[in-house]
Amino acid sequence: MRSQAVPANSADGDITSAVLAIGRPDFPNVLIDTLRRQAGVGHCMVFALRRAGAAHCLLDAGNIPIGGDLGAAYAGQFHESDPNRDALFEGEGSAPIMLPAFAPRMYGARYRKIFFGDSGIVDKCATAIWTGDTCFYVNFYRIAAQGRFSGVQRERLRVIAPAIGASVARHFQQTATPDQSLAALFATRAPLAALTRREQEVCWRILAGFSSEAISQALGISLHSTLTYRKRAYERLGISSQNELFSIVLRLLTHTLN
To answer: Does the first or last residue of the chain, that is N or C, have fewer Cβ atoms within 10 Å of its Cβ?
Structure first.
């Protein structure tokens, strides 16, 4: 079954907390909190797959008590019998993808018992993104106590999937601090690099959650100057809101990993 390509610029500032947690020890907790808030996700697991055959469980967070055991079992052997495997590898080198909708009949009896029967998982959505020779396979689950994803929740996951996948991939490749990562985007990537130094300083702090008053204090400038720099920056970027600024950063993050 073929996967579906997803536009890479479709997410907005609603997942900014996860993006800003890239490279931090609390990234898994921030990610699952974001997913729970945005789409009712109960559990998230991330696997790194390589065409040569190796698989590793990178992240296990949420409400499934035996999640760690499931991750180890999948990485150990069950990744080879995952019905999504062909779709994952057919998508190598393409845009972020959303995997086919979950259906129990897709899975063999033993796989189904271990990963769904024993764990209480009743629904699953998944996305993936390739960076170099590694596929970051991001899985979103709901258990019996939650019921299946609603249509609205599935659509929300489809919308945020590109930025979530890119954030996960960046986190597990990350060597710089989150502050350095944002600084690199502003220094090297259009349209952010076109801003003046002071406009960049203001926008970076907007992304970090500073209020206008806090930005003024941090930079040692008046509130009027802060608002002026923000207005000029938004005009240069062709935007009019904070959410649009978040969208630019998320889009650049996603494109950087493709």
So the answer is: N
